[in-house]
Design a protein that fits this description.
By secondary structure, the protein is mostly helical. It has two domains: about 30 residues, no CATH class; about 80 residues. About 75% of the residues lie in helices and about 0% in strands. It is built from five helices and no strands. Helix 3 runs antiparallel to helix 4 and helix 3 packs parallel to helix 5. The longest helix has about 35 residues. It is elongated, with a radius of gyration of 18 Å.
């Protein structure tokens, strides 16, 4: 399964190169400032907990714009924020379920 996923990713990258998909190959051409791109990318990764955001493309854009280590750091910040928001939403939903049903174990 892992080999098939890797092969599919390589085929996708090859197609992007052959078809000259500018947004995937040169995302900086489409973005005005790097500060806004960083904030937008981190915000999108955090919002991924409730919205259908293609997080792998956001992380790819981070790496293309800022380099491997800074892009990875930005992606880590975004995904950590995503986890924090998820925990907070889960706690709030659990407390609401407990109040409504009265069963703490189920919540």
């Amino acid at each position: 399964m892992g080999i098939a996923a890797g092969a599919l990713a390589l085929v996708g990258l090859g197609l992007a190169e052959v078809l000259d998909v500018g947004l995937l190959l040169r995302p900086e051409d489409r973005m005005d400032g790097h500060g806004a791109a960083a904030a937008l990318g981190v915000g999108l990764l955090v919002a991924d907990i409730v919205a259908p955001v293609p997080s792998s493309l956001v992380m790819l854009a981070h790496g293309a714009l800022f380099g491997v280590l800074p892009g990875a750091a930005l992606s880590l910040v975004g995904r950590t924020g995503n986890a924090v928001v998820g925990v907070l939403l889960g706690r709030g939903a659990g407390a609401a379920l407990e109040r409504r049903s009265g069963r703490r174990r189920r919540a």
